[in-house]
Amino acid sequence: MKTIPGGLRGSYPVPTTDPVSGATISLLVESSDGSTQILLDAGTGTKNLLPRLRPGALLALTHFHLDHLLGLPLLAPCGLSGILSARPDAASILSRVYSPPVWPVPATTAPFALATPGTPHVHGALTVAFHPVAHPDGCHAIRIDEPATGESLVLATDIEWALMSPADRAAFADFARGACDLWFDCHFLPSELPAHRGWGHSSWRDAIDAARLSRARRVHPLHFSPACTPARAASIARRFRTGR
Length: 244
Ligand SMILES: [Zn+2]
Ligand SMILES: [Zn+2]
Description:
This protein is an alpha/beta fold.
């Protein structure tokens, strides 16, 4: 299984020399044989993934905040097989956002499918599962497994680890158990979190804690704050290597 990040920034895009680090959240997951593609969220990073996207890809949405949706209109000509979300009102939310006078045309004609947390959805060679996490207006972590290879990935963006009870954290750890790759919200520094309680985000320290609890093999940061400089991102990567 392959993961190609298209955007790793949170909240809004920022100009950077590296287009992936400046664009908002979108990751493309491909099965090992290349037959199946799943796009995770449709932030502005979607643009960086367009050359690789093929008809039949599935879009799975963690939630409906705009930084995860701004690239959706770019997908109109891509022949998505569907849009998978854990909200039964996904279609009406998207048509509310993408309608005049906010946007002149519907953003998508792809069919919607409802994900039920606890029941994996099969898409070609991959399975997709959802798990609710603490975030304003609600959000779901998404797990993708490739049964043929045993490989797995968990995307936990827009999650406030500090607001999750021990039982919530244990449930998340069960969901993410043994993931080969855990992509985790690192929007804030630990020192910034107390002033941003309830904002729905975490820090690199939370990411390491969640990875340990889940026994994830590798952890990757994402949803960098717009204020995050390349130096700060590099220092987070260093902490992930040393585990503190
Ligand atoms: Zn976000
Ligand atoms: Zn959000």
